[in-house]
Amino acid sequence: MLEIRPNCENCNKPLHANSTEAMICSYECTYCVSCVNEVLHNVCPNCGGGFEKRPIRPQSGLLKNPASSTPVLKPVDLASFEPLMETNKNIAPNKR
C-alpha cells in the first residue's frame, strides 16, 4: 500500500493525496513534477530510477487507508547528485 507522502522531498511543496503534481519512483520517493523535470531530470537521487505520476487513491479508499501525514524532507545535494544524474538523464528508466 502506498504511503502517499504529503510533500515534495526536495522543495517541501505540499502534495495532497489528490495532487496531480506528485511523482514517485519505484521506492516511493516523492517529488513534485517541477523538481522531477527541472532539478532531477527524471533521475531519482536515491535509487537512480525514473519517476511516474503517483496514482490518486479514491476518497473511499482514503477512509480505509489514509495518506501519510509525516513529511519527508531530504533536499537534494546537487553536487553529489550530479554524477548520477549526468550518467542517467539521457537513458530511459527502463534501460538503466
Topology:
Blueprint lengths: L21 E3 L5 E3 H7 L12 E2 L5 H6 L13 H11 L8
Antiparallel strand pairs: 1-2, 1-3
Shape: elongated
**Major pleated sheet:** 3 strands, antiparallel
Return residue spans where pLDDT drops below 50 for at least 5 consecutive residues.
none
Instruction: Estimate what percentage of residues fall within beta strands.
Output: 5-15%
Number of helices: 3
Q: What Rg do the Cα atoms give?
A: 13 Å
Report the order of strands and helices: EEHEHH
Strand order of the largest sheet: 2-1-3
Quaternary state of this entry equals: single chain
Structural class: alpha+beta
N-to-C span: 25 Å
Mean pLDDT: 97
The domain tally reads: 1
Share of residues in helices: 25-40%
- Tally the beta strands: 3
